[in-house]
Write a structure and sequence with these properties.
about 25% strand; alpha+beta; two-stranded antiparallel ribbon; two-stranded parallel ribbon; 4 strands; about 100 residues
């Protein structure tokens, strides 16, 4: 059962705002992930769906980093981005259909 928790008042040095429709990973979102990984203190705010963005986050983060994301009705998922996990995420991304968005 979910319990109320305190909210976080994040004040990052850099905030990236991206649009990411459901069921896709936009280039804008992927580029923001890459930039945020290089920044000292950054947050990405997503207008739309962020569920698939864990995959490029795993690929782009330093090896053995932890990637955290929410799983609906389950809670928090923690992924250790080991070399094997990073490779698996790359393989999954490689099987996705690429489309140009206008």
């Amino acid at each position: 059962m979910r319990k109320p928790t305190a909210t976080f008042n994040l004040k990052p040095k850099t905030t990236y705002h991206v649009r990411n429709p459901a069921g896709v990973i936009t280039l804008e979102s992927w580029e923001a992930i890459k930039r945020a990984m290089k920044d000292d203190d950054a947050v990405i705010l997503v207008d739309g769906e962020e569920d698939l963005l864990a995959l490029p986050s795993i690929v782009e983060c330093p090896t053995n980093s932890l990637v955290l994301y929410g799983q609906p009705s389950q809670g928090l998922v923690v992924v250790d981005a080991s070399p094997d996990v990073k490779n698996e995420a790359s393989l999954i991304l490689g099987r996705m259909i690429r489309e140009e968005m206008s």
